[in-house]
Amino acid sequence: MRTFPSEVLVNVISNGEGPGNQGPWTIDAHLWSFAGDPTAPKPRSVLSLLLLQANQTVPVSALIQELWGHEPPASALTTLQTYVLHLRKLFSAALSVPASEVAKSVLVTTPGGYLFRSASDEFDLERYERLSAEGRHALATGQNAAAAERLMQAQDLWRGPALTDVRAGPLLQPQIKRLEESRLTTVEQGIEARLRLGRHQEVLSDLAGMMAEHRLHENLHAQFMVALHRSGRRQEALRVFQQLRATMTEELGLEPSKRLHLLQQAILSDDPALEVAPRTDGLAQLLDQLTVR
Fold this sequence. Notes:
Layout: H1 29-32, H2 41-52, E1 57-59, H3 60-68, H4 76-95, H5 99-105, E2 107-110, E3 113-116, H6 124-140, H7 144-156, H8 172-196, H9 200-213, H10 218-230, H11 234-252, H12 258-268, H13 283-292
Helix pairs in contact: 2-4, 4-5, 6-7, 6-8, 7-8, 8-9, 8-10, 9-10, 10-11, 10-12, 11-12, 12-13
Protein name: OmpR/PhoB-type domain-containing protein
Domain OmpR/PhoB-type: 1-118
Keywords: DNA-binding, Transcription, Transcription regulation
């Protein structure tokens, strides 16, 4: 079975730069640099959908819906076949093998659709999902150091939003949303693991950046408040709450949750519960403890 050489990797969530490109592509530049028209949006969409469902058949009907919605032209099937042929030529050039071999072992025609075959080491999304799953399991079983390592490795694979150079249709849009939600969860859990290890100052810059992206996300604000408090910056921790409350009131007409209010009160009173040994104190357990008292 044909696999990619080490210098040709498939990147969906991380950017690459190839020779002659003016900037990063989120579908790997090593591949697109071989294409006759690297800016063509529809072949990008076809490849994106195949990559996001690697090693699974993507039905022709799904590809046509992604490209043209519910009113495809009469030539849709023929045009799709042309795009697939174009992609096979692209991979053929990247791999230095005949397009016929690509059709047999990389971008394969299956009953009713097409399948992109990839090994995990060649695909950043599969590496990300493996690392984040390992990190989540380690966190759930109290292996906080291992969790922090795996989750940070997964986080480091990201270089900005996924598939920013692809025109997303009705099927790609929810897939991209899923990836972004997964990224947010991975960052949150990585921060949680480091908080449990007492690495409070280390997470401050990550939290500041994430809160700029997610201005109304209560759990990120709670993590930031705890990290600031445990870093000896109680006034700043209280200011984070005040800013969140002002934003929620102005934009949503809502108050922060009871758990956030109780965390604010705990910081105001310098509650000893906030200083529980970090190796056993997860944020969720801390907030639960404040709630039930």
